[in-house]
Amino acid sequence: MPDNNTLAAxxxxxxxxxxxxxxxYGTKAPPAGHHGYKxxxxxxxxxxxxxxxxxxxxxxxxxxxxxxxxxxxDRPGTDRNGHAVHGGxxxxxxxxxxxxxxxxxxPHPMYAEQTPHGGLHLFFNLDKPLERPTRKTNALPGVDILxxxxxxxxxxxxxxxxxxxxxxxxxxxIHDTATAPQWIVDLLTAPQTAFNPTKANxxxxxxxxxxxxxxxKIVQGAKEGERxxxxxxxxxxxxxxxxxxxxxxxxxxxINREFCTPPLGDREVNSIFKSILKRR
Length: 280
Prior knowledge:
The chain is α+β, with helices and mostly antiparallel strands. The chain folds into two domains: 1-193, no CATH class; 197-279, no CATH class. The protein is 40% helix and 20% strand. A six-stranded antiparallel β-sheet has the order 8-9-3-7-6-13. It has a three-stranded antiparallel β-sheet with strand order 1-2-10. Helix 1 (4-15) runs antiparallel to helix 2, helix 7 packs across helix 9 and helix 8 (245-259) packs across helix 9. The longest helix has 24 residues, at 197-220.
């Protein structure tokens, strides 16, 4: 049975020209046979077919095509099992300090959502499109800037939903949110400077060694009879390295097609990825 809340949200978005795409309910991974943001559409009939096919599903927005950008702010907390999330980072505090230091402010009215683990997604329109889909991890400590894609309300992760934040005045629609000031665009498109080489030299050496081993392992590839075990190991390594689940899935799909002989089917790749996610 279709999820009427998600279907209504998806139809509202496509009705305003924002391409959407489906994800497995409760996760950030695409369903079997689907391809994440690469298949984002503004076709309402296609959205209805997804609802009929999948029933309940999580919802993503193609930010690049929509001409939007999102500030993704971490807040320290725990998941429903009591495990720490976001590595103790406080993006809300980091953004506040940045605004005070540079005498800047966030524009209003602003559409915002609380994420399932207590973070915040602040949505803004762009006055001109980005040159390409872009995201900046740790543009500020605990602050990612998304210009490619994002999961949105009423999606759920770990049994908790993305919640639309309600202001003290009239609620702000995602379609009427403010335009991003240039400083947000500059933070997104500036070269990455997320670490201090002097303080992090030892850690970076270890990370480079790990990354190098992972790349070597990928290029080595796998043949029939070893593909499932090999691809499972690659999926785990990508997630262990800190890759966002949706990005990890897109990489795994590309790695399968390029380095498995012959490639596994979409259903098998999806099953492998879901099994790894359940272990995290």
